[in-house]
């Protein structure tokens, strides 16, 4: 470069930055200044850097993604073979791949990232960042084996460079992939490998605490995935203690913690988002354990925190947390007999999905929405709609647990509508699928419960007792209180049907105590009807009248709520079976606007940024069924989703 060219170049850069940082920014003039640089025919490095800067500006401030892509592609072509040009070369590759993904062109993103990974082996920071990004890309496309292989490469390369913190992140991320693939033994092996590294090899106490939160989130989700509600309590308590440490006022900011050196500039999630995530897994545990009041309380706290964070910066991951929490609160409403709030919140969840960038959340959560609508339709005795909603869920989901969950509910629909052949077929299908794979304790117990319910309806009381005792054994082993209360009340009904009033009373009494604690209005309705009959048999008129009055109160509350919810416009959602749901019915004020270029797959890091590992979200939901004119819910897993942040 001549000195005059150099002066022009510096001047144009200065002007571009001046226009960019003006209040308000003048992006058009900023871009014009950068484009003017090309008239001087600058050297390759300058030309490549300018194309990168233009791509960055266009992506950040405009919607002209095609022009941004063109500049980034030029920057990549120019910089790919230039030595000692790492920041521009790899920043370009990362940003270009991100843009391809935003446009659903992951097939174009992958070769760019693979080439960049090949070229970056000498640079630990960029090599790891690009490995995380490519693993994320493969996992988003459900190519979990390839994602796992890349994360293993990360473990090995960080081992060679003695980057212990990064090695821990790669290990935990790989455990998450194994969790998606339901490789239970591999998950445990990797967690056991990571645990001593976190405890003894990480010297920075702040980084150690963040890793502990990541580790405990995975451990809690792993146990919940297996339905081990009792086993998980210790890990959940440790997780809650760790998050309290991180959000304490004297804890340093994320910028201070993750800005020390390149190999420590990788952050899983900011502490404010970790706080919400811990609430979320706590809600999942409460739902599985059958503590609706607790789940409802923590859900409301988490949603309040999300709104607070949205007012500061509306990150796409917040909408993900919001939709999962809404799915939980909807289940709470159904369990507690508040269908009118449930259908409004289903509509809100639908609107949140529709408002996400490129309807990303709708693609991920449509099966869960159909399942929730199926549960809602069951609770209002609209079995034809319930069947169609469960069928839509089964057709759209690839999640084995969600499909099993919907099939169990479909079996209840067939049972209630006396479609014996369809019921036999679906139970055989579930039996065959169960024999090929292991499921969570809750789902397995639920399957035995459905079989017991079917035997009860066929008056095969001995067989019903056998199935229900198996359910109780599984439920009691892991404190699955809702499954326990449902099984006890049905077992009480079995004993009542064979005239064994003593055993019937022994079953219904703890069932009612548990149902009151949950609280579960449907089990209470069912149990009060049994108690009324028992007290009449035992010639106890005072207790009979009390049980009758309780039954009437429960029944009237449910009927009044059903009449109320069927008059809402949101009730029409039960007619949505395919494609996109109807446009938002709720006030737009309820929904915060989504960023125009937002995507769930985004790098999270301090400084120039390091790609984060994966974020697990697991959702444990419960189910509804009807027998003898009253409803009970079948504990199970509505959805288990893993995604990258």
TrEMBL record:
Entry keyword annotation includes Protein transport: no
GO CC aspect terms: nucleoplasm
Cell compartment(s), UniProt: Nucleus, Nucleoplasm
GO BP of this protein: cell division; chromosome segregation; mitotic sister chromatid cohesion
SUPFAM superfamilies: TPR-like (SSF48452)
Xref: Pfam families: Cohesin_load
Keywords for the protein's UniProt record, in alphabetical order: Cell cycle, Cell division, Chromosome partition, Mitosis, Nucleus, Repeat, TPR repeat
InterPro entries registered for this protein in UniProt: MAU2 (IPR019440), TPR-like_helical_dom_sf (IPR011990)
Main location as per UniProt: nucleus
Family indicated by similarity: Belongs to the SCC4/mau-2 family.
Function of the molecule: Required for association of the cohesin complex with chromatin during interphase. Plays a role in sister chromatid cohesion and normal progression through prometaphase.
Subunit record text: Component of the cohesin loading complex.
Name of the protein in question: MAU2 chromatid cohesion factor homolog
């Amino acid at each position: 470069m001549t000195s005059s060219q150099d002066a022009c170049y510096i001047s144009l850069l200065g002007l571009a930055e001046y226009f960019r940082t003006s209040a308000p920014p003048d992006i058009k003039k900023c871009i014009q200044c950068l484009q003017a640089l090309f008239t001087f025919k600058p050297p390759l490095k300058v030309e490549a850097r300018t194309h990168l800067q233009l791509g960055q500006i266009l992506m950040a401030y405009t919607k002209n993604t095609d022009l941004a892509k063109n500049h980034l592609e030029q920057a990549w072509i120019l910089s790919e073979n230039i030595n000692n040009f790492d920041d521009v070369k790899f920043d370009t590759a990362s940003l270009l791949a991100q843009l391809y993904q935003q446009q659903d062109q992951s097939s174009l993103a992958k070769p760019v990232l693979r080439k960049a990974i090949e070229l970056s082996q000498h640079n630990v920071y960029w090599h790891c960042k690009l490995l995380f990004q490519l693993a994320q890309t493969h996992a988003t496309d459900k190519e979990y084996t390839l994602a796992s292989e890349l994360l293993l490469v990360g473990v090995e390369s960080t081992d060679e460079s003695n980057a212990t913190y990064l090695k821990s992140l790669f290990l935990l991320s790989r455990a998450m992939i194994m969790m998606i693939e339901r490789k239970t033994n591999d998950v445990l092996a990797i967690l056991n490998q990571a645990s001593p590294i976190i405890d003894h090899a990480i010297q920075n106490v702040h980084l150690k605490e963040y890793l502990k939160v990541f580790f405990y989130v995975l451990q809690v989700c792993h146990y919940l995935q297996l339905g081990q509600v009792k086993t998980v309590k210790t890990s959940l308590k440790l997780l809650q203690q760790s998050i309290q440490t991180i959000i304490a006022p004297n804890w340093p900011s994320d910028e201070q913690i993750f800005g020390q050196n390149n190999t420590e500039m990788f952050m899983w999630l900011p502490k404010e988002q970790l706080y919400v995530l811990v609430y979320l897994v706590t809600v999942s545990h409460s739902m599985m354990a059958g503590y609706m009041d607790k789940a409802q309380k923590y859900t409301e706290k988490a949603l309040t925190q999300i709104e607070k964070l949205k007012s500061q910066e509306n990150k796409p991951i917040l909408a993900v947390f919001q939709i999962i929490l809404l799915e939980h609160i909807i289940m709470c409403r159904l369990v507690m007999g508040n269908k009118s709030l449930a259908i409004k919140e289903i509509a809100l969840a639908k609107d949140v999905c529709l408002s996400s960038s490129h309807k990303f959340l709708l693609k991920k959560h449509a099966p869960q929405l159909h399942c929730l609508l199926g549960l809602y339709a069951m609770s209002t005795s609209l079995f034809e709609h319930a069947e169609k909603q469960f069928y839509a869920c089964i057709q759209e989901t690839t999640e084995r647990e969600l499909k099993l969950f919907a099939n169990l509910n479909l079996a209840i629909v067939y049972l209630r509508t006396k479609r014996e052949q369809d019921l036999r077929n679906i139970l055989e299908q579930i039996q065959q699928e169960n024999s090929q794979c292991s499921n969570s304790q809750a789902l397995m117990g639920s399957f035995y419960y459905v079989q017991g319910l079917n035997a009860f309806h066929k008056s095969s009381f001995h067989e019903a007792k056998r199935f229900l005792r198996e359910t109780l054994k599984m439920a009691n082993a892991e404190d699955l209180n809702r499954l326990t209360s449902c099984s006890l009340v049905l077992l009480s009904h079995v004993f009542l049907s064979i005239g064994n009033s003593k055993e019937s009373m022994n079953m219904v009494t703890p069932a009612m105590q548990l149902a009151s604690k949950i609280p579960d209005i449907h089990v209470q309705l069912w149990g009060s009807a049994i108690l009324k009959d028992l007290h009449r048999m035992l010639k106890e008129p005072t207790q009979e009248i009390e049980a009758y009055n309780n039954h009437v109160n429960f029944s009237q509350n449910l009927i009044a709520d059903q009449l109320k919810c069927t008059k809402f416009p949101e009730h029409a959602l039960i007619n949505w079976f395919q494609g996109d749901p109807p446009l938002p019915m709720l006030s737009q004020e309820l929904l915060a606007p989504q960023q125009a270029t937002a995507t769930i797959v985004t790098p999270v890091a301090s400084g120039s940024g390091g790609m984060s590992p994966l974020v697990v979200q697991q959702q444990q939901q419960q189910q509804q069924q009807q027998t003898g004119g009253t409803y009970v819910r079948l504990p199970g897993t509505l959805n288990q989703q893993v995604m990258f942040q």
